[in-house]
Amino acid sequence: MYTRKNQRDLTGGEKRKFVDALLKLKRSGRYDEFVEVHMKYYVADGEEGLRVGHMTPTFFPWHRQFLLDFERALQSVSPGVTVPYWNWTVDTSPTGSLWAKDFLGGTGRDGDRQVMTGPFAYESGDWPVSVSVTRSRFLTRDLGRRGSLPSRRELNWAMDDPVYDVAPWNSLPGEGFRNKVEGWAGGRRGDWRNHNRVHQWVGGLMNGASSPNDPVFWLHHSFMDRLWTQWQRKHPKAHFYLPRRPLRRDDPQYGRVLSADEPMPPFGKRPSELITQNVYRYA
Ligand code: CU
Ligand code: CU
Q: Residue 152 to residues 9, 181, 280: CA-CA distances in angstroms?
């Protein structure tokens, strides 16, 4: 059992170790393989086929396994390293220590939004963007220039919902923990909340399917993963994953959504196997 720490509590040495592991993985080409996987499984409501990563109940278990695989890859180049989490209800400043030169670097410059400071700046030569839905060859950010981060209150609105997810199991339900946290629920189209709004607040490459190009992706999703565990503790009588049974053939979402015991591509793991885990804990 290892520990995933709050990024604000990392020592200088721990930050260096995490950053070095990212750079090693990038150099080996394995980092970009994770970006590719995320892009490949990024299927929206309006598209065809199985939705396994987003706009779907498997949002939590799929990203849990994705993060575990990534963390294992990091550990293979740097034993003992773990993925920290970013509590964006507390650390809200675009100039906070998370965005300092010795950690993730800062926001993008005016114009092309290119990140100019820190280990992931293009000039460093260590972080060329090669797999992306945009043509950007460098990391881009727009910290806080479009809206604010979700508040604790907005997050609690999601955490207080005692039902994991509801039909039609996509981006439409106004109820259910999953869609409220993922952030499509509650308001007009484009009025994003919680998880989605954080992607938007960081901006640049954090928007869209190739978002793992920004290392903050992993810290954001580590926090999301922690929220699923906290929600389970808060609602011990709830079904921790829904739907429990495969959808019927006449369900409009048939073939698009996985139930608890159906294996998720590309991992082959079932949501029910990932509801709890005993590999790591959160500090
Ligand atoms: Cu994702
Ligand atoms: Cu995300």
A: 20, 12, 25
**Residue span of the structural domain in which 20 resides:** 2-93+148-282
Q: Ligand 1 mean position to 62 CA, how many Å? A: 9
Question: How many distinct structural domains can be found in the chain?
Answer: 1
pTM here is 0.97
Helices (H), the chain: 12-28, 30-40, 59-77, 152-159, 177-182, 194-202, 216-234, 271-274
Q: What is the largest CA-CA distance in the chain?
A: 56
Instruction: Please check whether residue 101 lies inside any domain of the structure.
Output: no
What does residue 87 show for φ and ψ, rounded to 5 degrees? Answer: -85, 95
Question: Which ligand sits nearest to residue 218's alpha carbon?
Answer: 2
SS (H, E, C) 100-131: CCCCCCCCECCCCCEECCCCCCHHHCCCCCCC
170 C-alpha to center of ligand 1: Å? 14
- The CA 44 to ligand 1 mean position distance, Å, reads 11
SS3 state at 62: helix
Say if residues 124 and 152 touch (Cβ distance below 8 Å). no
Domain CATH code at residue 45: 1.10.1280.10
Model confidence over 13-42: pLDDT tens digits? 999 999 999 999 999 999 999 999 999 999
Is pLDDT at 265 greater than 80 in this prediction? yes
CA 142 to CA 134: how far, in whole Å? 15
Ligand 2 centre to CA of 75 (Å) is: 22
Number of Cβ within 10 Å of residue 256's Cβ equals 21
Q: Is residue 261 part of a domain?
A: yes
3-class SS shares of the chain: helix, strand, coil, % to 5: 40, 5, 55
Q: How far does the centroid of ligand 2 lie from the alpha carbon of residue 225, in Å?
A: 11
